[in-house]
Each structure stands twice: as C-alpha cells, then as structure tokens.
Amino acid sequence: MKSLLPLLCLITCVALGQKLMPNGFKQYTVTSAETGTVNFYVKGDGADKPLLLYLDGSGAYPLFQKMKQGMASTVMLNLKKVTEKYCVALISKPGVAFIDSTHTEDSFGGQPEEPEIYRKTLSLDWRATSASMVVDYVLKNKLASAKQVAVLGFSEGAQVAPAVAVKNKKVTHLLCFGGNGLNHLFDPIIQTRLKMHSGQYTPEQAQYKIDSLMTDYKDIYANPQSTEQQWWGHSYKRWSSFDSHTPVENLLTLNIPIYLVNGGLDENPVLSSDYIQLAFIRAGKNNLTRKVYPNYDHQLNEHVKNGEGVQVVPRYREVMDAAFAWLESKG
User: Fold this and answer.
1) pTM for this structure?
2) Among 134, 199, 264, 287, fewest CB within 10 Å belongs to which?
3) CA atoms of 197 and 106, how far apart (whole Å)
4) Tens-place pLDDT, residues 25-47
C-alpha cells in the first residue's frame, strides 16, 4: 500500500481572534506549504470535552446555506445536541465559504460552481492533511480533550476519514457513513453490471459502456495531476488522488474502534463496504462494527412502501443517535 505523505514540520497556526461565526462557531485557520490556508470552525469547545471532527461529502458546497425557509446544511448532525457533549470541528473546502447567503432563491443541493482554488487544490491528500492539522491545532490549544478524538466522515468524507486516522495517531475512534471501500472508479462498473442484470441494459450495451469507462480511466491515470481535465464533474487530480490508497487498505492498518454505516439501497457504497467487512473477517480483525440499514438510501432516508408507492422518510437523526451511543460505549 502506498504510504500517506508525511505532515510537513512547519505549520503556521492563526486563530483570527477566535472570530465568532453564525450558528455559534468560532473560526480558525491553519496554514502549511502543502495545504495553503485551511479554514475550520469549532463549536462546543472545552478542555474536558472529546473532539469530534466532521468531514462532509464531495463537491464545492458551503457547510451552511441561508435559504428563504431557513438554514440548510451539508452537516448530518444535530449540532445543538452533539455540542453539549463534544467539541465539534468542521472544515471548509478550498475557496468555499462557511455560509453561502447569496443563493437564497435556489434549492439546496444544486451543484455549485467550483472556485478555481478548489479545482486546483482538492485531493485526498489535501483533505486528509488539512484534517490532521486541525486535530493537532485543537488539541495543542486545549479546545478539546485528547482522551477521545473521533473522526466522522460522510460520503466522500468517509473515504477521507480512514486516511486521517492513518496519518494522525491521536485519532482514537473512526465513524464512516455511506463511504466506499474500493477504488471509486469501480463504482460505475458495478452500476453498469447491475443495470444489465436488472434488464436496463443488454449485455452488449453494458460491455460497450464499460469499455468506454476503461478508455476514460486510462486518460485519467495518464494525466493524474490535471486540474483542467474533468470527468463526471471532478478534476482528474481529484479522481486519481482518491484511488492512490483505498479506504479498505487504510482501514486494515488501524486497530482503533471503527463504526461503518451504509444504507442497503445505496448500491455502490454498500457493495464495496461489504468487501471491507469481508476483508476484516479474513484478516481476523475484530475492531470493526458494521451497521447496514436495508431500506435506507445514501442520505439515510428510509424508503417505505405504501399503497400509493414509496414514502421517503428522513432517518439520519436516528442513525446518528445509534452511532453516538456506540461511540460513548467505546469510551
């Protein structure tokens, strides 16, 4: 397995006067030659509280967005409840605002335009290194206790979280939601094969599509540092970096408690996470707790069949409650 890049020794940390942001967060920055400036935000700080670092999913989304109907967020946490017990840290992506107040007429979740710095900077190494720097800053400045340092990743963040735990040995617990275990360029291949077996593609159509994917992948790996060439809405650099070391490879090196969650309807991640569970069984490791919610999708919505079709019911709060009960049980 390719080793992670070591954290540069020279890191400049600036507290920005502990600038108070909306929603009660305090803004901080850490800076290094490797990452540039990293903006992060802390709420519920206290020297006796455990640290919970939350890593969100893919895309140049703000952590919060002001809408006509209220505040929307990519953060799948009940922040009021969680910050009573934990010091919560969030990290903005490169060039992306903490709160976007300029698109109040838009529906939350539409793909935002990527800032140039985001497109040129975003990679697995950037996300993992910046997260490790944030952990070091928070603990060094006693904003949280080092006795328990939990990293919680959702979607793309669940692919980043294992890399953070490998990089920073201060991490004591890992929680991954809706993430992949394998090379995520494998996802469209899985999806194509499944569609063939369900009758949506003929075998010939499926093979043509997979052959086309392989051609695209050859181009990505031939130009792994390109930030101008894009595929499926992300730069070649982003795609290649996330496959330089896969989550299952990183997870198998860890001996800390790991909590792995998937929705059974989330086709690609649940299949590659099945492989993670199998890999742990094969390796004789017992530090993995796996939870699959059979009728839940990627966003942790339950799909309930009724007489009129399917009702979609948000369940992320219940899923997170179960996860924090596990975390507290692990001390």
Assistant:
1) 0.90
2) 199
3) 38
4) 999 999 999 999 999 999 999 99
